[in-house]
Amino acid sequence: MQLASGSFPMVDYQARTASATQSLPWVEIVFGCLLACCIVALTHDPANLTADAEDSVEAGRGMEDIEKFHKNVNAAPIYRKLGFLGLLSLGAYCFATAPRNTHFTNRVVMVAIACSLGWLAASFLWSDDWRHTAREFVRVAAYACVALSMALRFRPRQICQVLMLGLAGSVFFACSASVLSGIFRPWASDFRLHGTLHSNLLAHHALVVLLIAVALAPSSRHAGFWRTLIIAIFAVIILTKTRGALASAIVGVTAIKLIGKPVWSIALIGSLLGTCVLTLALVASMSGSKAQEKLADMLVLGRSEGVTTLTGRIPLWQAVWEESQGRRLQGYGYGAFWSIERTQKMYKELQWYPRHSHSAYVHTILDLGYVGVSLLLVLVFSCLWAALRAFRATGDQAYVFFFGFLFAGLLDGFVEISYVSPRELGLYVGIVMMTLIVSHRAPNTEPEEADTEQPTPRLALAST
User: Fold this and answer.
1) Could you tell me if residue 62 is inside a domain?
2) 73 neighbors 79 (Cβ within 8 angstroms)
3) Using an 8 Å Cβ cutoff, are 368 and 374 in contact?
4) pLDDT tens digits for range 323-335
5) Helices (H), 324-359
6) Which H or E run contains 215?
7) CB within 8 A of 308, min separation 6: which ones?
8) Domain annotation covers residue 8
């Protein structure tokens, strides 16, 4: 592996002919299933299988377990440890079997990643809880190594396929657990689909699967399969009633559909969407009060509580902003702000237990300060530009997913921390970013056009 010359070259290209190092379909299938097992072990919680699981979390369920883990990392459940070791094993396999013709490229993204990880590591020096910061940095470093190993082993389209298999398996497991446990009651007004995952996290896992399906569907011969998958996954997001994930899905799908379109086409579509919104508002204003109530209820997915405060987020942000005076430049150290004591202090003020800041931007400022959030934004925008250039150079739909996924994260970051949390979507964000700095072609050669999908008859997800 070597560093390609050039400050911002094209990112990655698929050869038209198969090579000895290219994954066979069964490798991707098995890897995706094993990844699903690791995701389930790392993120799912059997304690969520109750009708009032999410209310009990806000009431303090799990605080004792968090306190034990802060004091002793060995207090983590055995299935969490197995999931972590399994993920490291998958990373080791990818590194050991990576093709030798891979090399690093795209120095802008590489420098942005290095600076972000460097600042995160440096926060250990001023952390309020240096032990916890050290543990969290070990987690981030391990996930970064796994992400890089996967980027070295798989081509962009294969990355999409294994991520889709892994996260679709996670969604299926959570939904199946919800049905089998008897808590699946979509006819109830207060129902939110969750299963063994919190509704927000389940919606975000479904979000990634949805964006991959929308991006890869145009280049596939199996339109019926992709159409069914898209409808099913979108239904999952709706049933979770997670408004942030739904808005991110709409933004991500829109970005995927508009990428590569001429400016006039984008302006026309934007004008049509704006006209539809204004027409809807006009009809609502002319309707009776009952019709307006029904429309409002539909827009908030039936969750009318706390709409004006974004479900308690605004008071939370005000409280943590006041608490962080004097530490906003460098932050409190990675993972150090949300200590047990500070969480309990927030409970006295808010009357519920916040586990995080419910905003990726606020969360990053608290952990790494203005410097950290600036580095994060530079990294994201450099990755967006790299994905756009790679798509224009190769036509590979995988880069369309990368662009839509990261673009949706810019909106999602206002109300959720999923994209910056290693426990939620952080690993998959890292995989996408690492894929953008790895090329599977020999350096200083002419780029080849991307393959169109030529699936084998055995499975629609098989790569060429």
Assistant:
1) yes
2) no
3) no
4) 888 899 999 999 9
5) 340-350
6) helix 199-216
7) none
8) no
**What values do phi and psi take at 103, rounded to 5?**
-155, 165
- Is 456 inside any structural domain? no
Q: Do 112 and 433 meet the contact criterion of CB atoms below 8 Å apart?
A: no
For 426-440, the pLDDT digits (tens) are 999 999 999 999 987
Number of domains in the chain: 1
Task: Single out the residue of 366, 302, 303 nearest to residue 335, CA to CA.
Answer: 366
Task: Report the candidate in 434, 447, 431, 403 with the shortest Cα–Cα distance to residue 12.
Answer: 447
Mean pLDDT of 257-280: 64
Neighbour tally for 21: CB within 10 Å:
14
**Which domain does 109 fall in, by range?**
25-439
Q: Report the first-to-last Cα separation within the chain, whole angstroms.
A: 24
CA 289 from chain center: how many Å?
39
Q: What is the pLDDT of residues 322-378, one digit of tens each?
A: 988 889 999 999 999 988 888 888 888 888 888 888 899 999 999 999 999 999 999
Q: Does the residue 153 lie in any domain?
A: yes
User: Which structure tokens are listed for 413?
Assistant: 């970051």
Which amino acid, one-letter code, is at 325? Answer: Q
Whose structure tokens read 């150079």? 393
Contact predicate 458/25, CB 8 Å = yes
DSSP 246-311: HHHHHHHHHHHHHTT--HHHHHHHHHHHHHHHHHHHHHHHHS-HHHHHHHHHHHTTT--TTTTTTT
The pTM of the full predicted model, rounded to 2 decimals, is 0.85
